[in-house]
């Protein structure tokens, strides 16, 4: 075993401290890194965390160093959280100004001196702008940009005059959902709403597909919803990255039912807000918007009713005056007409009285003449008709006698013919009738040798069997 000069550990760490101090003293660097292993001691206001750099492609850690923030650094972190709305925690990407030091007990330390709020906000904004550009490029058939506004299929839909049936996409334990429902249930106007809940996770960029699936479930339900409401409570800016995703922005933009958002983001507008029919800041504001929409319709109905009442009163007053004038005119004209017609009736009555006497006398004479003619003319007509009837009877008797004699001769002729043509007379002349299967046959077409036949003659009936058949040839 060889012996060599040795030094104390404190001497070695002192040399390390001196060497690092000579290189890093009074120097600071702006570093881009991710935050991990963060812990915060609220009583002292100290932050302890690791800064890491990850491989762009594999995600593996390329570099890692422990860091701390206190005093000024802790104050800058508080300002960062206030400005961005983003809590300083694990897995956020930051640009920080740090100093390097070495402590003989605690070792190498990175101290956070400042944090760039614009870097974090700008990075998120850049990602959002890239998403919006992709939406307008890949979904140009239902998304287009006009000025600073995005025109989508969804925000071109018309809200029903009254919103009553709602599909709500939210987290089941969300305080924002409770605020939304409380506002609707306790509205001052007594409106009632039918709410179907489609609960899901509404936090975390990777959960966008879950929210999209709930929209698909709403569509497949075939329920005629008046609107779909997407809500969640407040939170840090990165908690809203889900609503800046391409997949959810596209789904909302083309959804066939008006979408109202109340995501709880007070400062910035998300991509989902831009694609939706109507965007509000909070769940409570979304509920107030729905109530105000229904109230607007009710006020328009009340206003229309009031206008109808006023117009009806005006029309009634105007027509009442017209009717009063017409009534006076009718009464006066009626009096004048009655007086004029009364005089005319008196004149007509006198004319009728004198004229009717003359007419009655003339008609009385005419009636006497007609009565005499009527009494004499029927006797002559009856006598003429009686003579005509006697002549017709004579003609009928002579014609019927001749007709009966003619028909008797025809019957006798037919009787003679029937007797000559009867089978008995035919058999007497030497003819015979041949039967096959009890049916008379007139030719031998159906007879074959061996067939059994019956031959009927005048005085006998013969049973025979056909032995041969010779067809006669007729020229």
Automatic annotation (TrEMBL):
Domain OB-fold nucleic acid binding: 8-115
Similarity comment text for this entry: Belongs to the XseA family.
Gene that produces this protein: xseA
Catalytic activity: Exonucleolytic cleavage in either 5'- to 3'- or 3'- to 5'-direction to yield nucleoside 5'-phosphates
Domain Exonuclease VII large subunit C-terminal stretches: 151-464
EC annotation from Swiss-Prot or TrEMBL: 3.1.11.6
InterPro entries, alphabetized: Exonuc_VII_L (IPR003753), Exonuc_VII_lsu_C (IPR020579), OB-fold_nuc-bd_dom (IPR025824)
Pfam families: Exonuc_VII_L, tRNA_anti_2
Keywords, sorted A to Z: Cytoplasm, Exonuclease, Hydrolase, Nuclease
CDD domains from the UniProt entry: ExoVII_LU_OBF
Localization per Swiss-Prot or TrEMBL: Cytoplasm
The protein's name in its UniProt record: Exodeoxyribonuclease 7 large subunit
Any one Gene Ontology BP term: DNA catabolic process
GO cellular component: cytoplasm; exodeoxyribonuclease VII complex
Molecular function GO terms recorded: exodeoxyribonuclease VII activity; nucleic acid binding
Keyword match Hydrolase: yes
Chief location: cytoplasm
This protein's record includes keyword ATP-binding: no
């Amino acid at each position: 075993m060889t012996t060599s000069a040795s030094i104390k550990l404190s001497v070695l760490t002192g040399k390390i401290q001196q060497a690092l101090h000579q290189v890093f003293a009074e120097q600071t660097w702006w570093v881009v890194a991710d935050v991990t292993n963060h812990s915060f001691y609220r009583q002292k206001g100290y932050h302890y965390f690791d800064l890491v750099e990850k491989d762009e492609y594999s995600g593996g850690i390329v570099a890692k160093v422990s860091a701390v923030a206190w005093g000024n650094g802790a104050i800058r972190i508080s300002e960062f959280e206030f400005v961005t709305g983003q809590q300083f925690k694990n897995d956020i990407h930051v640009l920080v100004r740090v100093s390097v030091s070495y402590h003989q007990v605690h070792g190498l330390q990175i101290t956070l001196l400042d944090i760039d709020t614009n870097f974090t906000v700008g990075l998120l904004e850049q990602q959002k702008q890239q998403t919006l550009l992709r939406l307008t490029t890949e979904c140009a058939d239902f998304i287009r940009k006009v000025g600073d506004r995005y025109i989508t299929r969804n925000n071109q839909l018309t809200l029903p005059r009254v919103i009553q049936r709602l599909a709500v996409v939210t987290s089941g334990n969300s305080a924002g959902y409770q605020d939304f429902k409380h506002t609707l249930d306790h509205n001052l106007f007594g409106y009632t709403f039918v709410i179907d809940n489609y609960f899901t996770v509404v936090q975390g960029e990777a959960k966008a597909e879950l929210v999209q699936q709930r929209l698909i479930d709403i569509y497949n339900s075939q329920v005629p919803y008046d609107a779909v409401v997407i809500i969640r409570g407040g939170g840090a800016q990165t908690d809203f990255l889900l609503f800046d995703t391409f997949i959810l922005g596209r789904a909302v933009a083309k959804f066939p039912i008006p979408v109202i958002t109340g995501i709880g983001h007070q400062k910035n507008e998300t991509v989902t807000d831009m694609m939706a029919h109507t965007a509000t800041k909070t769940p409570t504001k979304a509920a107030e918007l729905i109530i105000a929409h229904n109230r607007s319709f009710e006020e328009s109905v009340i206003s229309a009713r009031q206008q109808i009442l006023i117009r009806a009163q005006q029309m009634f007053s105007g027509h009442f005056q017209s009717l009063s004038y017409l009534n006076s005119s009718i009464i006066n004209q009626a009096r004048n007409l009655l007086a004029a017609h009364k005089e005319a009736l008196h004149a007509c009555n006198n004319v009728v009285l004198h004229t009717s006497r003359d007419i009655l006398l003339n008609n009385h004479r005419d009636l006497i003449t007609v009565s005499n003619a009527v009494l004499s003319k029927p006797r002559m007509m009856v006598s003429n008709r009686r003579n005509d009837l006697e002549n017709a009877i004579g003609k009928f008797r002579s014609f019927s006698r001749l007709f009966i004699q003619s028909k008797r001769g025809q019957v006798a002729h037919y009787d003679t013919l029937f007797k000559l043509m009867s089978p008995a007379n035919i058999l007497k002349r030497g003819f015979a009738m041949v039967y096959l299967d009890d049916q008379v046959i007139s030719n031998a077409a159906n007879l074959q040798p061996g067939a059994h036949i019956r031959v009927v003659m005048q005085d006998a009936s013969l049973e025979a069997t056909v032995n041969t058949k010779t067809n006669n040839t007729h020229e």
